[in-house]
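Researcher: Re-running this chain for the archive, since the previous output was lost when a drive failed. Same request as before.
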Amino acid sequence: MEEILVARSDRGVVTVTLNRPQAKNAITGPMWDALRRVFEEVTRRDEDRVLVITGAGGAFCSGAQLGGTMSERPHPLTDMHPVNAAALALHDVSKPTIAKVGGVAAGAGMNLALGCDLVVAGESARFSQIFSRRGLSVDFGGTWLLPRLVGMHRAKELTLFGDILSAAEAEKMGLVNRVVPDTELDAFVGGWAERLAAGPPIAMQMTKRMLAASFSLSLSEALHWEAVAQSLNFGTEDTREGIVAFLQKRAPAFRGR
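Model: Regenerated structure tokens:
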């Protein structure tokens, strides 16, 4: 669909661009379904190594579209299944994910960014859990993500007030990994994506799964799954390649097998 652009590089970097610049890339009902399908496809395709999510026209995403087609539905804001399905599909993407945030990231748009593994923002980016200012509760996983990222009291402050944060403030809170000049955003994210695409896919996927599960595991359980993962790694060609490359003092060539 024209509102969701998907581009794939020959190095395995998949870039998904929200393409409704006239509405600051607000997401419509059909777009939630399209995003879910793309996220599921990236997980399935071995040749896809990294997912980058961004927005067109100087904005990341202003959240869900509250007018237009959604207002024509009888109860537009109570049917949350497409939103929840997209949020779960993003969480379940097995490959590394990067949010490239330029301009506004508000409401579900902010949580779309926070749902990625890494968040890189241009210096003019702005973030807001704007829901309460629209008479809404938090969605797209924000109630799960925010306490894990910034703690419960800070999460309550962000959601109950819905204030707008600068990129620098978001970085200080730990919501953003890096803030870079707007003119360097594309190059910086491109560099990170290339580095991740060159990494060992199997090992990184297992690391992602273990980190995602870590809040519900005891230390002994976490250690158990780390041992299982390492046992699996030592049976792969990538781990053998990594060790040989280290001994030969060269960069490894990981192939995902």
